[in-house]
Amino acid sequence: MSKVRVAIICGGKSSEHEISCVSANGVLGAIDRSLFDPVLIGITKSGKWLLLAEDTNFSIINGALPSVPESGVEISLTSSGLFSGGKNLAIDVAFPILHGPYGEDGTIQGLFEMIGLRYVGSGVLASAVSMDKSYAKPIFAAQGLKVAEGVVVSSNKFTLPSNLSYPLFVKPARSGSSRGTSKVKQANELSAAVDYALTFDTKVIIEKAVVGKEIECAVLQADGEIKVSAVGQIVIAEKYEFYDFQAKYLDNTMQLLVPADLPAGVEAKIQQAALTAFKAAGCEGLARIDFFYSNDSEIIINEINTMPGFTPTSVYPKLIEHSGINYQQLITKLIYTAQNRSASITR
């Protein structure tokens, strides 16, 4: 049986470029080479597609984050596939380990649909909806899931609704890894926080801070079924106001408690809410769904990540591992699921 040629695509034009590279490094190191023939493709910050050496090391070294070099062997995309140096790379499945805009938001998924290339993860609409929190929240609410109270603004000229009291979170509607997010404790900080978020996106969400526990749940669609992981709790060092970029990636103090410290029966309710959200957004393959369990005993959905951080130590693979599926098996399941799925524009 010939090996499946898998394009591991990383980098991209979003502010999560570097984290995408780290995720790809993990997959490249763990992929089962008896089944798959990986081809590493990097998208530079300026948008060039490059064929990268298989021994590229994209690990974090002394706190320095890796990135795709701006020059190299370029790739062209045609209706016949991906080509480099006039040669067809003969890719069977794309694994776009891209986080944030231009990768997790339906844009690259649309490109794959247009050239008929199967790919890991959610389709165009589910990716776009999940990426844009201002669209995802009404969909969750329509399914009976509780969301944090908030408002969407597109400039710093707005009137704060009376139902929003401090502290507030201000975040770009379509960004990830907490890039552009601020916790605002008083009125005189709000305008600057909105301006900061607007440097990442044209649309900003101002949300009431939920006091409680940060809870994450992994969903895996493979082998014809949808599995929901045990629920994990994020515990960060006291020096952090919230689970920001630094706490997520550059400081190894974050702890993932599995199972989460929750009252009896709450985990099952969160797992059910995760499944409801996954189906409501039309997700496929994988998703990490983030919740708060408030001090008022409410389960509040925060967001869906359709291509979550994917290093061996990332929350998503760790949670799936608690279901008895290790990192390499997870990669295998996702690629085979993508390969066996029918290519259809309706996705």
TrEMBL record:
<feature type="binding site">
    <location>
        <position position="133"/>
    </location>
    <ligand>
        <name>ATP</name>
    </ligand>
</feature>
<keyword id="KW-0479">Metal-binding</keyword>
<keyword id="KW-0460">Magnesium</keyword>
<feature type="binding site">
    <location>
        <position position="290"/>
    </location>
    <ligand>
        <name>Mg(2+) 1</name>
    </ligand>
</feature>
<feature type="domain" description="ATP-grasp">
    <location>
        <begin position="137"/>
        <end position="336"/>
    </location>
</feature>
<keyword id="KW-0067">ATP-binding</keyword>
<keyword id="KW-0961">Cell wall biogenesis/degradation</keyword>
<dbReference type="GO" id="GO:0008360">
    <property type="term" value="P:regulation of cell shape"/>
</dbReference>
<feature type="active site">
    <location>
        <position position="177"/>
    </location>
</feature>
<keyword id="KW-0547">Nucleotide-binding</keyword>
<dbReference type="GO" id="GO:0005829">
    <property type="term" value="C:cytosol"/>
</dbReference>
<feature type="binding site">
    <location>
        <begin position="302"/>
        <end position="303"/>
    </location>
    <ligand>
        <name>ATP</name>
    </ligand>
</feature>
<keyword id="KW-0133">Cell shape</keyword>
<dbReference type="Pfam" id="PF07478">
    <property type="entry name" value="Dala_Dala_lig_C"/>
</dbReference>
<keyword id="KW-0464">Manganese</keyword>
<dbReference type="InterPro" id="IPR013815">
    <property type="entry name" value="ATP_grasp_subdomain_1"/>
</dbReference>
<dbReference type="InterPro" id="IPR011761">
    <property type="entry name" value="ATP-grasp"/>
</dbReference>
<comment type="pathway">
    <text>Cell wall biogenesis; peptidoglycan biosynthesis.</text>
</comment>
<dbReference type="GO" id="GO:0046872">
    <property type="term" value="F:metal ion binding"/>
</dbReference>
<comment type="function">
    <text>Cell wall formation.</text>
</comment>
<dbReference type="InterPro" id="IPR000291">
    <property type="entry name" value="D-Ala_lig_Van_CS"/>
</dbReference>
<feature type="binding site">
    <location>
        <position position="303"/>
    </location>
    <ligand>
        <name>Mg(2+) 1</name>
    </ligand>
</feature>
<protein>
    <recommendedName>
        <fullName>D-alanine--D-alanine ligase</fullName>
        <ecNumber>6.3.2.4</ecNumber>
    </recommendedName>
</protein>
<dbReference type="GO" id="GO:0008716">
    <property type="term" value="F:D-alanine-D-alanine ligase activity"/>
</dbReference>
<feature type="binding site">
    <location>
        <position position="305"/>
    </location>
    <ligand>
        <name>Mg(2+) 2</name>
    </ligand>
</feature>
<keyword id="KW-0436">Ligase</keyword>
<comment type="similarity">
    <text>Belongs to the D-alanine--D-alanine ligase family.</text>
</comment>
<dbReference type="GO" id="GO:0009252">
    <property type="term" value="P:peptidoglycan biosynthetic process"/>
</dbReference>
<dbReference type="GO" id="GO:0071555">
    <property type="term" value="P:cell wall organization"/>
</dbReference>
<feature type="binding site">
    <location>
        <begin position="169"/>
        <end position="171"/>
    </location>
    <ligand>
        <name>ATP</name>
    </ligand>
</feature>
<keyword id="KW-0963">Cytoplasm</keyword>
<dbReference type="GO" id="GO:0005524">
    <property type="term" value="F:ATP binding"/>
</dbReference>
<feature type="binding site">
    <location>
        <position position="303"/>
    </location>
    <ligand>
        <name>Mg(2+) 2</name>
    </ligand>
</feature>
<dbReference type="Pfam" id="PF01820">
    <property type="entry name" value="Dala_Dala_lig_N"/>
</dbReference>
<feature type="binding site">
    <location>
        <begin position="207"/>
        <end position="214"/>
    </location>
    <ligand>
        <name>ATP</name>
    </ligand>
</feature>
<dbReference type="InterPro" id="IPR016185">
    <property type="entry name" value="PreATP-grasp_dom_sf"/>
</dbReference>
<feature type="active site">
    <location>
        <position position="16"/>
    </location>
</feature>
<dbReference type="InterPro" id="IPR011095">
    <property type="entry name" value="Dala_Dala_lig_C"/>
</dbReference>
<dbReference type="InterPro" id="IPR011127">
    <property type="entry name" value="Dala_Dala_lig_N"/>
</dbReference>
<feature type="active site">
    <location>
        <position position="314"/>
    </location>
</feature>
<feature type="binding site">
    <location>
        <begin position="177"/>
        <end position="178"/>
    </location>
    <ligand>
        <name>ATP</name>
    </ligand>
</feature>
<keyword id="KW-0573">Peptidoglycan synthesis</keyword>
